[in-house]
Amino acid sequence: MKVLIVGSGAREHALARSLHLDSDVEELHAVPGNPGIGQLATLHSQDPNDGAAIAALAVNVRADLVVVGPEAPLVAGVADAVREVGIPCFGPTAAAAMLEGSKAFAKEVMAAAGVPTAEPRVCTTPQGLEAALAEFGAPFVVKDDGLAAGKGVVVTEDHDQAVDHGQAILTSGGTVVVEEFLDGPEVSLFCICDGETVVPLQPAQDFKRAYDGDAGLNTGGMGAYSPLPWAPADLVDEVVRTVAQPTVDQMAARGTPFQGVLYCGLALTSKGLRVVEFNARFGDPETQSVLARLETPLAGVLLAAAQGRLAELPPLQWSDDAAVTVVLASHGYPESARSGDPITGVDVAEEVDGAHVLHAGTAWDGEGALVSAGGRVLSVIGRGATLTAARATAYAGLGRIGLEGSHHRSDIALAAAEAAGT
Questions:
Q1: 127: which residues sit within 8 A by CB, 6+ positions away?
Q2: CA 383 to CA 380: how far, in whole Å?
Q3: How many C-beta neighbours within 10 Å does residue 304 have?
Q4: Residues contacting 235, CB < 8 A, separation 6+
Q5: What's the average model confidence in pLDDT over 344-372?
Q6: How many CB atoms lie within 10 A of CB 397?
Q7: pLDDT tens per residue across span 302-350
Q8: Which pTM was predicted?
Q9: Residue 143 in 3-state DSSP?
Q10: For residues 162-189, b (16+ Cβ closer than 10 Å) or e, as one string?
Q11: Cβ neighbours of residue 118 under 8 Å, at least 6 residues apart?
Q12: Is the dihedral of CA 239, 115, 93, 314 positive or negative?
């Protein structure tokens, strides 16, 4: 099988790594990819949001499957363009990707499907914003209705900060969604969908805040781990039954069947399970941990989803190991990430037994040296028999990497490991 991956982050590197390890995959291509993906795949320079260009590339390389990683190409209709030339594509159509492209639309679908979620108010004026904030009270949850690369949400006790965030969205021409605050821990569950059938992966938890103890600004994610020893035993079944399957059924009934990953961002609240948000693709950095534990070859699963054949697959097989992902971020991230700093020690980090490194914000400089080229630069993944062992492996690998001014969280999966006593 020949596979073309669209995207350039650590999520796409994780997908490339899993596909590279799949014996059914004979050839990998990526657009635009990154230096790490380039070690596994042939890189191409087309615009990843240009559906016609991606479709033409898929035809040119004779791809048997196209896998679209990020949300922007999906909302832009890249999957539609690929399907129009007769090539199976893992990723929803532009219409179905609106589950992520518009939070207001996602809330409408959830309401129609009877999916439990936070009560929303959609605001298009400063007066509406103020009214919604007053109605719900603190803590305030203020979201950009559209795509914001995981950083369009503010959760704060500070009324002025909530107003400022909402006003900035309105001033830029956007729409604001204000929601009731959901208490309890958050969980990410990816569900592979083919328009009818839902196949869940294993749950994970990510860490959104920049610094230890959940201090600092929201980021795209500073780390993640899987499995979740503290989660209810029936969590996955409950999410499929009450969230994912009703949503997929509702999308099909609307004539916009959802094929790809339905990312269910969940809160386990005092009132029960609630959906925080939907995404229309794999999450980053949770994907890095989840795929590290998946033993079923990935290509066949993604192709079956793209072709509407998920019901034919046997149950997915998973390692009992834990996987912990720690993100190494560049100087100044998330406020103003610095680029161009030399990166050393990646190969040495991968010599740690059970560790591997995935590239995100990296590039080659003019002299062929690896340098930082974004906010989240690398993901270091550790596997181990327990969360404590996986943490030790991930941080051992991270400790061998040099990047001036970089920072990372030291508490990824720490509380869960301590609570589990392993």
A1: none
A2: 10
A3: 20
A4: 187, 189, 203, 228, 268, 273
A5: 97
A6: 26
A7: 999 999 999 999 999 999 999 999 999 999 999 999 999 999 999 999 9
A8: 0.91
A9: strand
A10: bbebbeebbeeebbbbbbbebeeebbbb
A11: 141, 179, 180, 181, 182, 267, 274, 275, 276
A12: positive
